[in-house]
Write a structure and sequence with these properties.
Layout: H1 5-12, E1 21-23, E2 33-36, H2 42-46, H3 71-77, E3 84-87, H4 91-99, E4 101-105, E5 108-112, E6 145-147, H5 153-163, E7 170-185, E8 200-201, H6 203-210, E9 240-244, H7 249-261, E10 295-298, H8 301-310, E11 314-319, H9 320-326, E12 332-333, E13 335-336, E14 349-350, E15 357-358, E16 360-362, E17 374-376, E18 387-388, E19 412-420, H10 429-437, E20 458-462, H11 474-477
Parallel strand pairs: 2-3, 8-13, 9-10, 9-11, 14-20
Antiparallel strand pairs: 1-3, 4-5, 6-19, 7-11, 7-12, 7-19, 7-20, 15-18, 16-17
């Protein structure tokens, strides 16, 4: 049994306030599957409510219901399936809740558990999935978690410590891809808003902005990015940078792009691939000891999108579906390398048998150029239930052996469902397996999902040729 769960269950039965706890209407009963984690794919999983202006609580009706056309909404309509709750903790906390127990994150110590409220603790971390809110006080572990930053060796160690056994393993399979947009809020010399159709950043320009090499919008190195009407100019204003302050798969994916594409930008140093933008080993840690005063962090994709929209002369990275769901007129999404995050993204990305490795994790130490490295798990399980798309495979559009075609928007995230190979309640086993397999169901289910596909900023994965170890039923077969 996982240490500390009796205390967590008792505490969780007290009054709770939920941060972004999303519950399918009519599903708050025993058997509801309880999960949480990544914000990047959340609009696809639960609908536009994930990017709501009110991120304090989601109920079961009205503006806080999960959309019928979302992945979880469609899942709930299938005969025999229960409801699903989803707590937007962010990647890092989501993996930690799946692990359970007390975990040290840099200088902070937090205790995580499925029974803990879906709310920020005194450290500002959402350290639970709020199971009591959906009458699941019987759960000792979450039904699933979602993450865009794949498992690391530390994550696996935390999981086995939290579960009290080196024989217990998480499962991991890629389920969806997302376009990480470059959002901006800028007016020209006439006071007119600069629109998405007028901005096309090169990869070098993206690298220069987020390394702090370019600090003003009027810098001549950015001139080629803008196509403005005659008589309109870019003003000499400071670039205000917005970034994700929590452990974020969006940061991981954006930095994966930066570390693999910025070599030609002739920067003073390299970007680190990391789920943390700041701190030791963070994305920008090689460029700044302390970030400039006009660089501002916000937790979650939706909050970063709102920070860009509310801050004049700003730019930031944000998952496209969240930005679109908010429909903020002052938030525009730039083209990158001539490709749009909406018009040039959404067709399923093809995963071949050589695009997936098994029982490998992200090495905590990047290569000297900041790119992520993968390593084999020490004493791995005998199964092939920890599947990883190496980050390099989606870092450069059009690269040989990569999964992102040259016709695609180039800044891409791959998001995963995580599960528990052991310890699933027998009454939940079939429904949990169905949930983890639903992204690969094709015409049976995914064709009915309206929150993923062309124009949404999200794309399913085509695993037809992924090999015998990764089929539509592999995730469910890994659960016991």
């Amino acid at each position: 049994m996982i240490n500390g769960h009796a205390t967590q269950i008792a505490r969780a039965r007290m009054a709770w306030s939920a941060l972004a706890l999303l519950i399918i209407a009519g599903s708050a009963h025993a058997g509801t599957l309880v999960g949480g984690g990544a914000t990047l794919p959340s609009v696809g999983y639960v609908g536009g409510n994930a990017a709501s202006a009110n991120l304090q609580f989601y109920g079961t009706t009205g503006n806080y219901a999960i959309a019928a056309g979302s992945l979880f909404g469609v899942y709930a309509t299938q005969t025999g399936n229960p409801g699903v709750s989803y707590c937007l903790t962010g990647d890092g906390a989501g993996k930690d809740v799946l692990a359970g127990g007390t975990i040290r994150d840099n200088t902070e110590v937090n205790t995580y558990g499925v029974q803990t409220n879906c709310a920020k603790n005194t450290n500002g971390v959402v350290n639970g999935f709020g199971a009591p809110a959906v009458s699941r006080t019987d759960l000792l572990q979450p039904s699933f978690a979602a993450a865009d930053s794949p498992l690391t060796a530390t994550d696996v160690s935390n999981y086995q410590t939290g579960h009290g056994s080196t024989s217990d393993w998480p499962t991991q399979f890629p389920v969806i891809a997302g376009a990480v947009g470059i959002g901006f809020n800028l007016t020209d010399s006439t006071g007119a808003q600069v629109t998405a159709s007028e901005v096309n950043f090169s990869s070098v320009q993206v690298c220069q902005i987020f390394s702090g090499t370019v600090t003003e919008w009027s810098d001549s190195r950015l001139t080629s990015a803008f196509t403005l009407p005659t008589g309109h100019e870019i003003p000499a204003t400071e670039i205000n940078v917005q970034y994700q302050s929590d452990g974020s798969g969006t940061s991981f994916s954006f930095s994966n792009y930066l570390s693999n594409n910025c070599g030609s930008a002739e920067l003073s140093n390299v970007f680190e691939t990391s789920q943390n933008f700041t701190g030791t080993g963070g994305v920008a840690s090689n460029f700044f000891t302390t970030l400039p005063a006009n660089w501002t962090g916000s937790g979650g994709d939706a909050n970063v999108a709102k920070a860009i929209a509310n801050t004049a002369s700003s730019v930031g990275y944000v998952e496209t579906a969240n930005a679109l769901a908010l429909a903020l007129t002052t938030l525009q999404l730039a083209d990158v390398a001539g490709k749009s995050p909406t018009a040039n993204f959404g067709t399923p990305l093809v995963i071949g048998s050589t695009d997936v490795v098994y029982n490998e994790v992200i090495n905590p130490t990047n290569a000297s150029n900041g790119t992520a490295q993968v390593e084999a798990i020490t004493s791995p399980p005998s199964t092939q239930c920890i599947a990883l798309v190496p980050p390099a495979d989606y870092a450069i559009a059009g690269s040989r052996g990569g999964i992102v075609p040259s016709t695609s928007y180039p800044i891409v995230a791959v998001s995963y469902f995580l599960g528990n190979a052991q310890g699933n309640l027998s009454t939940d086993l079939a429904s949990t397996a169905n949930l983890l397999e639903i992204p690969y169901s094709g015409g049976r289910v995914t064709v009915k999902v309206t929150t993923v596909g062309p124009g949404t900023g999200l794309a399913f994965l085509n695993i037809t040729n992924a090999g015998t170890n990764f089929t539509a039923t592999s995730p469910g077969a890994c659960l016991h």
